[in-house]
Amino acid sequence: xxxxxxxxxxxxxxxxxxxxxxxLTLIWxxxxxxxxxxxxxxMIGMYVAFVIVVALGVGPGxxxxxxxxxxxxxxxxxxxxxxxxxxxxxMLAQILSTFGxxxxxRYTAFWIFTPNFRTLPQTSLTGTINLGGILLNVAQLAAxxxxxxxxxxxxxxxxxxxxxxxxxxxxxDRQAAMxxxxxxxxxxxxxxxxxAASAGIAGALMAISYPFSPAVGETFALTAFVxxxxxxxxxxxxxxLAGLLVGLIxxxxxxxxxxxxxxxxxxxxxxxxxxxxxxxxxxxA
Length: 285
Description:
The protein has 285 residues and is an all-alpha fold.
């Protein structure tokens, strides 16, 4: 029963990993652009939740929505202020621009919030629930289910709606999309907004259960890159599958070998898989 509880907990954590990684894979798949500041978007989502809860004393639904809206606006602003210009430059300029952006966001958070770890005050999701003998933290259960639902919703947005068709058209051929009356700048700005919003919601969900500081963005960025590469760059279903897999491996590794070794085992299996299948689980060769 304990092992089953560990497995369920790992899958719930993996669902949040999938949500925070789906935005990164969206940017890569649409623009062939690597965002090294993605982990900082998650961190900002955590602090948005913290500020909203402390200032207004509201529940998870409100601060999750605030994180989504705030990060969406931030993502669109960053696209028009920075990304649109550096996209015309070499790949090195793209890498250094988002790496510098990550440092700017991280140390701005250090300046505003100090390096101390923070935790959210108790919310309506405090407590545990018994599901057939499995004791689960209510906050983790809600975070995992919401994250999985939003990841699937993003996939449906891309594959079943007119906006998704326009996003994919710009990703396929920017010039041809312009001839069809699609505004590439608007679509790419929307992609950055959706990417940042998904990271912000994931951060708000993680903040319910885990302490955080301005430095957590580094850890989440590394996890997101592992998940995206493992699932296949540009594949939202791949990010969902890989996120669940990474969360499950981390949970089982911590259970059998101790928390110290969970990341070592994940990265070791990750390298082994890339050796055998470099395009990832659902990516194309």
